[in-house]
Amino acid sequence: MAKFSEHSITITCNTPTGSEQIAKIFGNSVQQLYLPLDFHGSVKRFLNKLQPAAIIILETELWPNLILQAKQRQIPVLVVNARLSEKSLKGYQLFGPLSRELMRSITLLAGHNQADVERFKRLGLEDSQSSVVGSIKFDIQLSEQVKHSAQQLKQAINNYDFVWVAGSTHPGEHEQIIAAHKLLCSSRKKSLLIIAPRHPEQFDPIAALLSDEDIAFARWSSRDLVDQPILLADTMGEMLTFFGAANCAFIGGSLIDRGGHNPLEAAALGIPVITGPSYYNFQHIFPQLIANNGCTKVNDYSALCNQLAVYANSPEQARLDGKEALKIVQSNSGAIEKTLSMLEPHLST
């Protein structure tokens, strides 16, 4: 933000959760709005009111009316941290003429890797419109506050021999994760599971599930951590704290067909990652981690149980794999600075 401090910045989102996170991270330093539904009239009124000098789109939220009207008004459309899976490519190809028009309306696209950029080119993006800069997800800055919070939590749970986080989990996984922890506790009683669902509306259903199975648990929001086998992380925006206090992390959305979630926050804190077989949304990240032993892919609940046992019984193996995960993050950092350098000519005042 400091590099473009002379600009007035508006950040849009689509959900109340997103709005809360924007407010938490940026406070009053930016204007925060909900992006209108992608109808012609709604987008027209939005652009008339906002009068943006440029539109920066993160990843692949390519709304046709927004992009096409921006082109008509000669507003630069800059797509950053762009990724496109083969599955998404096939979806865009069903609407070939519209997809080609969208690609022609993009001023500049900064892609994760060459494979992603090539998929955009198959939709009609020109060489002159694209560049490979890497993923900004690798550029993780750990604040002193995060480090302090993680250390405080680690001290609060130092009576446990093994701590693992199940982060960004979904319905269909919760039962498997809880069952895996029950099995782990049968041989290592002083083990703690921190379960952090992807969406806040899952807090109470998980609490009900644990109560129905007569499993003792604590809620993070109550800060009552005394000797319970499971901690329900029922707040948002504190995942780094949990990863910083754990021995390993399972990344959700992967034991079911959801395509996984970002593993790099865990890796940046030097702990090993476990993923299920479904991680197609992060094909630019997981293969590197898996190839370098920073992440273990498990195909089902049984394999998850086995891998948890490996790390619980061999803390040194967990530390070594965590170091490998951290190396991958460090070796791929720098995409933010490259992206900002690309954006600068289009944001000059």
Summarize the structure.
With 349 residues, the protein is α/β, with parallel strands linked by helices. 43% of the residues lie in helices and 16% in strands.
Strand adjacency order, main sheet: 9-10-8-7-11-12-13
CATH architecture label name of the largest domain: 3-Layer(aba) Sandwich
Can you count the helices?
Answer: 15
Mean pLDDT: 92
Largest sheet: 7 strands, parallel
Identify the CATH class of the largest domain. Answer: Alpha Beta
Helical amount: 40-55%
Tell me the CATH topology of the largest domain.
Rossmann fold
Please tell me the total number of domains: 2
The ordered string of helix (H) and strand (E) elements is EHEHEHEHHEHEHEHEHEEHEHEHEHHH
Proportion in β-strands = 15-25%
Counting helices, strands and paired strands, the structural category is: alpha/beta
Can you say what the CATH homologous superfamily of the largest domain is? Glycogen Phosphorylase B
Basic shape: elongated
Distance linking N and C termini: 15 Å
| Low-confidence parts | none
Written description of the protein model:
It is a single chain. Helix content is 43%, strand content 16%. It is of the alpha/beta class. It has two domains: 35-139 and 333-346, 3-Deoxy-D-manno-octulosonic-acid transferase, N-terminal domain (Rossmann fold); 144-331, 3-Layer(aba) Sandwich (Rossmann fold). Strands 9-10-8-7-11-12-13 form a seven-stranded parallel sheet. Strands 3-4-5-6 form a four-stranded parallel sheet, sandwiched between helices. It has a two-stranded parallel ribbon with strand order 1-2. Helix 1 (16-26) links the parallel strand 1 (10-13) and strand 2 (31-34). Helix 2 (40-50) packs across helix 3, helix 8 (174-187) runs parallel beside helix 13 (301-313) and helix 13 (301-313) crosses helix 14 (315-331). It is elongated, with a radius of gyration of 22 Å. The chain starts with 9 loop residues before the first strand and ends in a 6-residue tail after the last helix. The model has no long low-confidence stretch (mean pLDDT 92).
